Amino acid sequence: MPMVEVAGKEFEVDEEGYLVNLADWDENIAGYLAQEEKVELTENHWEVVNFLREYYGEYQIAPAIRVLTKAIAKKLGADKGNNKYLYELFPYGPAKQACKIAGLPKPTGCI
Amino acid sequence: MNDEMDMEEEGGVVKQFMFVNRKAPYGTIYALEGLEVVLISAAFEQDVSMAFIDDGVYELKKGQDTKSLGQKNFSPTYRALEGYDIEKLYVERESMEARGLTEEDLLVDVVVLDRAEMAAKMDEQDVLISF
Q: In 3D, which of A55, A60, A58 has the Cα closest to residue A69?
């Protein structure tokens, strides 16, 4: 599988560009993965990325989009926990793109 | 209020699906695959429940440690089911007792049914899928 080097650190990604080892993740790597997705990371993006990392830490899965929006609404408010807001941040699918930037595997049942 | 509630699409038959888990969590792929199918099924807005019978009750046991197996401990994922609106988890009392387990040993809230009640619950289902 392809190796990538960011800020002097080497790490492995799969054919679709997902980080292979969750433990490799750091903010520089997130920056690289975001660049690959053509997403410019703002504070609002980080909020979602960090939320996903916490979710994964707790449940060991990347949530389905419906579950993600609901959980974000609960934690950050309804103005952020909706599809419109999340798709504005991650136009090619919040579950897919935000998970990739967060260094998580592709969500189960991601379609 | 400016809420952006998703409009529920009208139509579509809702069936009762029960996923039956009978195997220990590790050693075979059944438990993990079964759990993934359940998580995916949540997207189809059906009436989904899970049953834990025989060694399947071990899937819900607290304090699983897979380090020496070199496998991922996926047991925390059962706690995510609630967020997927899968809240009907049935555990067979006889299977639990035969393994010296009680509800306190389990990592999620469950409904304990005896064998006859479990059979009746299965009888109510439209679809039973066994792992």
A: A55
User: Would you please indicate which residues of A are annotated as catalytic (active-site) residues?
Assistant: 110
Q: What is the pLDDT along chain A (111 residues), one digit of tens a residue?
A: 788 888 888 999 998 899 999 899 999 999 999 999 999 999 999 999 999 999 999 999 999 888 999 999 999 999 999 999 999 999 998 878 999 999 998 876 554
Q: Mind listing the domains of chain A with CATH numbers?
A: 3-101 (1.10.10.370)
pTM (2 decimals)? 0.87
Tokens 């136009």, located at residue = A91
Residues of A (61-100) whose Cβ lies below 8 Å from B = 61, 63-64, 66-67, 70-71, 78, 82-84
- Assigned token pair, A72: 């974000």
**B73 CA: distance to closest CA in chain A (Å):** 8
**Euclidean distance between CA atoms A51 and A55, whole angstroms:** 6
Q: Domains in chain B, ordered, with CATH?
A: 16-63+75-130 (3.40.1260.10)
Q: How far is A58 from chain B (nearest CA, A)?
A: 7
